[in-house]
């Protein structure tokens, strides 16, 4: 009798995605290992970024560089991540999701060793950039693989597990980093990835190995995509210090983006998923995601300045007060995933955006005097709202795309997240430059509240618009039945028990059929 490990790691024949869009049925033990592989890979990418943030002062001293120069260790990783998201999604469709995902995990793990062995800042920055490319494959294809592993009715719960893993990693990253740095040097922070990466690679054998489409990747489009992202990232980095250089870089990014859109527009499966963005539900969900992440980013950047500069808290207490946010996300996200499979997701998104907006507004305007304890329930409300919004919104994005474009939807979802985070960071940086350190955090929290409120209203508006279009196009009952075309041939060949419902399910799922129920 085969063991659970044998069932979990048994290699399956490479086969194309089923034509009816249903995920392959995996044995119970193998499905558990496959889910664990995806979640562990997400932890690997998120934990590495959180730990590196804490270690920047130690790295700057060890490498004998200024604190400002050490920020490039973070910037290089983010640049590699954003540059690689859409190309990795396209490669996943072409070569197969599992192949590209495991390649990303292998690249991330190998470059972690290079980071640990880097003798100077340029070597470390280069290794972090390549590490970001590996992380892009993980983030672009992780949820797409979950869609293949779990039944459709459990997709919301699976996205909730993913959000739980990300939230716990974000919360635990600073603590783990501080503990490691108290007894070891900074290279050990990256060496920590090696055993975890090896375990993920082993568990990835349980993922379904489906054949890709074999489409060739347009290298010139990939270069244009890299030009857009690199110009945006570097331009945002130097916006405050060198505004003219930043303006030139942002102009170059706009020109490259226009050229990329013009080149990709005629394609059936473009690098930028323009075919998916033409569908209203997915487009609205992406826009809402950008607004929500921009507001959340402004809040998370404003709170440390608020706690330290206005309330006089030290670094340790600031970290402890802010930990309530990701811990509440870790609790609320799985619950939101369960609800997303049972109630209209637009209402969940609207409620989540409202809770997050109320929390950020309360942090901005609440008359805190001396003690920072009132901020604990406020940040918990922010975490509750973010978990309630993000999980159903991500579910909308993935179910709005046809199964063969799941990887592109994953790349679009991750890109929306990083675009929102970058926009929020740039906006907060500008506020800290033009306003006093006492005023800027409150203004940033207020703007963040407005952005998250917009995200909730956009989701609700999209739901009402979709319902109105559905009612406008719904035919009258029993009208003109005799004139309806018969898609399956003569009436005698139509099976009312199997063929029609299956075709109806497929048609309803394509381009937003189950997004905002």
Description:
The chain contains 19 helices and no strands. The protein has 517 residues and is mostly helical. It folds into 3 domains: 24-215, MFS general substrate transporter like domains (Growth Hormone, Chain: A); 217-268; 270-470, MFS general substrate transporter like domains (Growth Hormone, Chain: A, Up-down Bundle). The two termini are 44 Å apart. 50% of the residues are buried.
- The appropriate CATH architecture of the largest domain is Up-down Bundle
Determine the oligomeric state from the structure.
single chain
CATH class bucket of the largest domain: Mainly Alpha
Radius of gyration: 24 Å
Q: What do we call the CATH homologous superfamily of the largest domain? A: MFS general substrate transporter like domains
**Percent range for β-strand residues:** under 5%
Model regions low in confidence, pLDDT < 50 over at least 5 residues? 1-22, 476-517
Total separate domains: 3
What is the CATH topology classification name of the largest domain? Growth Hormone, Chain: A
Number of DSSP E strands: 0
Largest sheet: none
What is the share of helical residues? over 70%
Mean pLDDT: 78
Count of helix runs: 19
Structural class: mainly alpha
Element string (H = helix, E = strand): HHHHHHHHHHHHHHHHHHH
Q: Compute the separation of the termini in Å.
A: 44 Å
Global shape: globular
């Amino acid at each position: 009798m085969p063991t659970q490990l044998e069932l979990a790691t048994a290699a399956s024949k490479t086969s194309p995605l089923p034509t009816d869009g249903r995920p392959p049925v995996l044995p119970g033990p193998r499905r558990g290992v496959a889910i664990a592989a995806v979640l562990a890979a997400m932890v690997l990418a998120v934990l590495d970024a959180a730990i590196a943030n804490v270690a920047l002062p130690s790295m700057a001293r060890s490498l004998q560089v200024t604190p400002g120069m050490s920020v490039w260790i973070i910037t290089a990783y983010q640049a590699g991540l954003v540059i690689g998201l859409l190309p990795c999604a396209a490669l996943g469709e072409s070569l197969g999701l599992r192949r590209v995902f495991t390649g990303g995990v292998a690249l991330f793990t190998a470059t972690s060793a290079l980071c640990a062995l880097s003798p100077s800042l340029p070597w470390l920055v280069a290794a972090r950039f390549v590490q970001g490319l590996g992380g892009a494959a993980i983030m672009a294809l992780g949820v797409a693989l979950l869609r293949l592993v779990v039944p459709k009715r459990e997709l919301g719960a699976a996205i909730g597990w993913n959000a739980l893993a990300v939230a716990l990693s974000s919360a635990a990253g600073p603590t783990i980093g501080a503990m490691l740095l108290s007894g070891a040097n900074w290279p050990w922070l990256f060496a920590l990835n090696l055993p975890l990466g090896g375990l993920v690679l082993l568990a990835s054998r349980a993922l379904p190995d489906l054949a890709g489409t074999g489409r060739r990747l347009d290298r010139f489009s990939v270069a244009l995509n890299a030009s857009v992202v690199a110009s945006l990232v570097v331009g945002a980095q130097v916006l405050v210090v060198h505004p003219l250089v930043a303006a030139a870089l942002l102009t170059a990014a706009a020109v490259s983006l226009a050229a990329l859109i013009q080149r990709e527009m005629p394609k059936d499966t473009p690098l930028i998923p323009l075919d998916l963005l033409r569908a209203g539900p997915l487009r609205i969900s992406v826009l809402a995601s950008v607004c929500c992440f921009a507001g959340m980013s402004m809040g998370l950047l404003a709170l440390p300045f608020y706690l330290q500069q206005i309330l006089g808290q030290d670094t340790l207490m600031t970290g402890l007060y802010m930990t309530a946010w990701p811990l509440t996300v870790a609790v609320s996200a799985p619950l939101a995933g369960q609800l997303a499979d049972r109630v209209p997701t637009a209402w969940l998104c609207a409620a989540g955006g409202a809770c997050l907006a109320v929390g950020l507004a309360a942090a901005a305007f609440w008359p805190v005097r001396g003690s920072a304890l009132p901020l604990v329930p406020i940040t918990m409300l922010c975490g509750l709202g973010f978990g309630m919004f993000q999980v159903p919104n991500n579910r909308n994005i993935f179910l709005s795309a046809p199964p063969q474009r799941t990887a592109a939807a994953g790349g679009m979802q991750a890109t929306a997240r990083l675009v929102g985070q970058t926009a929020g960071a740039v906006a907060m940086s500008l506020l800290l430059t033009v306003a006093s350190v006492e005023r800027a955090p409150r203004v940033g929290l207020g703007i963040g509240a407005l952005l998250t409120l917009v995200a909730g209203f956009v989701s609700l508006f999209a739901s009402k618009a979709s319902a109105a279009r559905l009612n406008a196009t719904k035919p009258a009952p029993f009208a003109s039945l005799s004139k309806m075309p018969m898609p399956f041939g003569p009436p005698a060949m139509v099976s009312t028990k199997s063929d029609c419902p299956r075709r109806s399910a497929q048609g309803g799922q394509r381009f937003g059929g189950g997004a905002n129920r």
